[in-house]
Amino acid sequence: MKVLLINGSRKSKGCTYTALSEVAKELNERGIETDIYNAGTMVFKGEVDLAVQEATEIIKGVDGIVIGSPVYYASPTGEILMFLDRLFWSAEEYLRFKPAATIASARRAGTTATLDVLNKYPLFANMPLIASRYWNMVHGSKPEDVLRDTEGIQIMHTLGKNMAWVLKSIEAGKKNGVEQPVAEDKVFTNFIR
Ligand SMILES: Cc1cc2nc3c(=O)[nH]c(=O)nc-3n(C[C@H](O)[C@H](O)[C@H](O)COP(=O)(O)O)c2cc1C
After folding, report:
1. 0.85 cut: is pTM over it?
2. What is the Cα–Cα distance from 3 to 95, expressed in whole angstroms?
3. How many angstroms separate the alpha carbon of residue 107 from the centre of ligand 1?
4. Residues with beta carbon inside 6 Å of ligand 1?
5. Atom of ligand 1 nearest to the CA of 73
6. Residue from 77, 107, 145 to probe ligand 1 pocket by mutation (most atoms less than 8 Å from CB)
7. Residue 148: DSSP 8-state
8. Taking all residues of the chain, what is their mean pLDDT, rounded to a whole number?
9. Which atom of ligand 1 is nearest to the CA of 11?
10. What is the pLDDT of residue 193?
């Protein structure tokens, strides 16, 4: 089993990466492989199409996804939004029914607004959303700050454990005849009768 963790920061080894790594640690300890993809740095360089292509290839082979973003002006970064807009439009068939979680990293404020926006993507795509013991956030300006945010770290660890539990439950279900739902063709009405 494998989980892809997507980093929406322009910094490949900053606070968001640190938080995602803590989630990954718990998954790894439970025998689940992980890969961290730095979407933010790719989009910042102008490589949006390449980033979506590369991530789609990885997503085809994973069982779950974690999306992390720093808070910029009380929202996710422009980079992760551009990436997710494209990814969820073009790769939904590879995302659906895979458990997902979102996390936000901030110096101080705007985390819940950021999570609200990030959660819209998995909730659009039939992806079971994984919770932790609080809303999924860490605080800091530098990776060292995040590691000192003991509550934030506990939230990340709990999230990793909960994600592992759901992934293993889905696998056990499959082995016991619990089939994944079949996605119906979507009806789009645009509010016109
Ligand atoms: C352009 C910009 C806007 C930011 N806006 C906020 C904000 O609204 N609230 C906040 O608490 N931190 C804000 N920050 C700080 C970052 O969210 C915070 O330091 C985060 O942990 C950085 O994560 P990273 O190291 O993964 O990039 C901002 C940082 C930048 C560069």
Report:
1. yes
2. 12
3. 6
4. 9, 11, 14-17, 70-74, 105-110, 140-141
5. 8
6. 107
7. H
8. 97
9. 27
10. 67
Give me the percent of the chain exceeding a pLDDT of 70.
99
pLDDT at 190: 85
Range 63-72 average pLDDT: 98
Residue labelled with tokens 């860490």: 138
Average pLDDT over residues 158-186: 96
* Closest atom of ligand 1 to CA, residue 105: 21
From ligand 1's centre to the CA of 21, what distance in Å? 18
Residue 2 near residue 62, CB atoms below 8 Å = yes
Question: Where in the chain are the domains?
Answer: 2-175
| Chain centroid, CA 19 distance in Å | 12
β strands within 113-180, DSSP E: 137-139
**Which residue's CA is minimally distant from atom 6 of ligand 1?**
72
Rounded Cα gap, residues 150 and 102, in angstroms: 19
> Which H or E run includes 145?
helix 143-148
**Statement: residue 192 has pLDDT above 80:** no
Domain at 2-175, CATH from 2.60.40.10, 1.20.1250.20, 3.30.450.20, 3.40.50.360? 3.40.50.360
Query: Ligand 1 atom 28: the closest Cα is on which residue?
Result: 72
